[in-house]
Amino acid sequence: MIEFLENITPSTTMALVIHAMIPLGLILVYALFAIWMERKVAAHVQDRLGPMRVGWHGWAQTIADMLKLLQKEDIIPTDASRFLFRFAPFLIFVASYAAFAVIPFSSGYIGSSINIGVFYLLAITSLLTLSVIMAAWASNNKWSLLGGMRSAAQMVSYEVPTIMSVLSVIVVAGSLNLMTVTEMQSGNEILGFLPNWLIFQNPFLLVAFVIFFVSILAESHRVPFDLPESESELVAGYQTEYSGMRWGIFMLAEYADMLLLSLLGVVLFFGGWNSPFGTFMDGPVWGFFWFMLKGMLLVFVMMWIRWTLPRYRVDQLMRICWNILIPASFVNFVLIALWEMIF
Amino acid sequence: MKSDALKSPEEIYEYLKASFDELLEYVPAELGQSWITVPPFSMKAVAKFLRDDPALRFNTLMCQSGVHYPDEDELGVTYHLHSTSHKHTLVLKVRVPIADPRVQSVEAIWKTADWHEREAWDLLGIVFDGHPNLKRILCPEGWEGHPLRKDYRQQETYLGVTTGA
Amino acid sequence: MGLLDKKYHDSNIIIVPLENALNWARKSSLWYEQFGLACCAIEMMATAASHYDFDRFGILPRSSPRQADVMIVAGTVTMKMASRIERLYEQMSEPRYVISMGSCSNSGGPYWEHGYHVLKGVDKVIPVDVYVPGCPPRPEALLEGFLKLQERITNETVVESKPDGK
Amino acid sequence: MDEIITNGVQKQEMVINMGPQHPSTHGVLRLEVVLDGEVVKKVTADIGYLHRCFEKHAEAMDDYSKVIPYTDRIDYVSAMNQEHGYVIAVEKLLDLEVPERVEYMRVILAELQRIASHLLGVGTFGLDLGAFTPFLYCFIEREKILKIFEKVSGARLLYNYMCIGGLMQDIPEDFKTDTREFVKTFRPKIQELNDLLSSNRIFIDRTANIGVLPAEVALNYAASGPMLRGSGVKWDLRRNDPYSIYDRFEFDIPVGKGEVGTVGDCWDRYIVRVREMEESLKIIEQALDQMPDEGDVKEAVPKRVRPAEGEVYVRTETPRGELGYYIISDKSASPFRVKARAPSFVNLSILPAISKGALIADLVAIVGSIDIVLGEVDR
Prior knowledge:
The structure holds four protein chains of four kinds.
Chain A: H1 2-8, H2 12-45, H3 61-71, H4 82-99, E1 104-106, E2 109-110, H5 117-125, H6 127-139, H7 142-173, H8 178-183, H9 198-201, H10 203-219, H11 231-234, H12 244-269, H13 284-306, H14 314-342
Antiparallel strand pairs in A: 1-2
Helix pairs in contact in A: 1-2, 2-12, 2-13, 3-12, 4-5, 4-6, 4-12, 6-7, 7-10, 7-14, 10-12, 10-14, 12-13
Chain C: H1 15-28, E1 31-33, H2 39-48, E2 60-62, E3 70-74, H3 79-91, E4 97-101, H4 102-107, E5 130-132, H5 139-154
Parallel strand pairs in C: 1-2, 3-4, 4-5
Chain D: E1 3-6, E2 9-12, E3 14-18, E4 30-36, E5 39-46, H1 54-60, H2 68-74, H3 79-94, H4 100-128, H5 132-153, E6 162-163, E7 166-167, H6 175-198, H7 201-207, H8 215-220, H9 226-230, H10 237-240, H11 266-290, E8 310-318, E9 321-329, E10 337-341, H12 343-348, H13 351-354, H14 360-370, H15 374-378
Antiparallel strand pairs in D: 1-2, 3-4, 4-5, 6-7, 8-9, 9-10
Helix pairs in contact in D: 2-3, 3-4, 4-5, 4-11, 4-14, 5-6, 6-11, 11-14
């Protein structure tokens, strides 16, 4: 990709900038689509229609929302810490955007194919916690503060099972480079027809995926773990004092985060950009299609869960993490390692 | 102890007379239920007796209402009691002069009286002696007058907003 | 019209499409504050529920006033509540609108004469854009109120009106 | 803020205001909550934000029947039940016999209203716990009841349909078929609700053992309705102090048994409501079968309502509990005093007693399980 960009643009710098901007464009287009999709999914789950008036079946709804948010007054509460209050939305967005750098979107495009891709991704997503606390503390609002504290506890705890389940994949794959992990999953050899995806390679990786999925639900603040912004308890949690586009950026980051973690799941368990039909419909462009399709399916499942389940309480959330997920993920890790030794 | 005998207010009155003698007064009514009038200063003792006596066991205060009787220049409180174990009901009434409207609180006997008494104070200005937290409940603090009195005149503005009086 | 209100002196080929786009965005995405007062709130909920479906028009509930565009005063405003409503209105960010839903918030409704504790019309404390009559208004009436508000937004302009009335 | 020093660590309690504008206070209730972290130390309910002077209006009206529209607005979620209670009270004051057909109609409408109200209560309870979809499913069913009501009375929410001694107008011809159709389609929906919410693991985790209200406390606080029955007390005025024609129907009184937790917890209160809907369906079916087809609904309506001097206290079972009307008549055309003993008002006063030591999320669940209507709390 970068060679191609260097060929068509006058300077290397420009090529690099464009190269780096691709995920940004992707996030924006995806967010427009995902927010619309969320509303449509919600509506159809609830026997409604959802947005209908703006364009065909309301496809332009999110564009209108964004354009409106841009026009809104930018309120900074008098008692807020002004710098942190303004800075937090950007930090949260930077964190989710930067993490996309190591995601292999197709065989032809990865932002940076570094050897410590997984490590980098997990490290940079930890910034999300920081920015949420920053937003909460800076707002000088009690609801925000409670939301921020919940968020900090939740994200720090759920990082452990996430990392453990990611590690179990790494044990099988033997590389921290996400591109390498994807490439080793090509082909259809398991039982003669199943693709070589990691989830099919080792029965314990299925368990690892379940743990991973539950943890990313919590990491991206989705129901049943959406406590930091739980509407019926904390008004809007850490976002309570934000208005206009600053709030919009939080929204954007939340959806970007959802996509990021889903895509990570796709790379680690569902063969990344590999086609499910072997060499059929394979190639860089099809690869991108398959990759996004799998990612969006996971995002869809997250939405589906959101509109079906109630929400956990904060202590139950912690108990699930420390009493169930973390021990389970450790045991599972050992079992995967044993399986790898034996077979 | 199941006591089917003590069903009507009159029987209950006869039973109460043994303990409270001259204090109580039985008032038969043509329409609706007859009631027993209790002096305001012994309300709590009567209430405690009614709740705890095994033959009575009025464990629930269904309703407590304040009333303003402008003709007599009096305020009144009506208590509707009932017992889930003996399945009987009783009406008690207290009358106090409007100049000194003090009634003993029954908050300690039936917890539900807490809010009912605050409401009666708020809307009618009946003072309940012994109530731990007797302040306005429906109207905001700083409201003038007691709206359910028949001679209530609405204040013209509240916090700078006209009330439309 | 919020921040851009009357900022320009002349209408021109750039401003007109811009204005249209901005107005279109605002009218298509009216987020209301999730805030019910009395009987009308139940009808407001019914309007948001499956049968009438606010979301068709892009109307969403927000529980924080900061993120809301329109406040539906759904129900009787009492003296005790009046100052809170004023405060909530102040917490909303511009551009903001108010729909007064039902007779009570329009004028005091059935509590007009003897309601010592009822505010006789929410417009005594905050400015109202659209009044929806009814006690309570049917969901269709509330939707009509939103359509009227959209109409009103469409006609807003960023151009300062000239002193000669043009 | 009080400072607490434990083991050399300085802690501060946080005072937080829930409401009057808060998504889960069911209207304009303000709760002043003292928190230690997320643990509730003390709750003080501040009510009166919707005080609409019902009692003053009742005294100011120059006719007993003019009060009926205001009774609708006390509890706007179950207006039919409110009207029912009031007209029964005035009829008792007048010593008035009401035609059979009217009684049956009133019972059917009151029970339909009970279902509609419980649907709202159950739905918003789910909403408080973060389950958005069951709430909308409940509203779909509620909308069907409102359609029946609209055909009957012309209004969706506040009907002003019952009048002293009768009804405003006769029922439409297809009322019976509509209601039967509804009863038939609604039964499976209750099962659906049970599958989606009542037996949901997360829902049970959130509601079991939360906000436990023991029976003695409930009686001492004069709790009523599902709040009392949730605590295991089999007390339903339709059975224990029958009014109207409720003694003619076969139905059970569901009580909380502590199936998933302790007796009297939030889940018990919730499930009592769900089961009551089934019982109401039974009553409706029986009433539809027994109801006479002919009869003038305005037969007994008096020309002028002027009761003799006296007073009555009439209590009826509304979806939220015991609604009592204490009416004093002084022989004039307007009531001397009307006191509405509203179930929500009394039930809400228990909140501080049962929410100590809960988390904020539990507090939301407890408020939701009490199922208050602020119009009734403040009147």
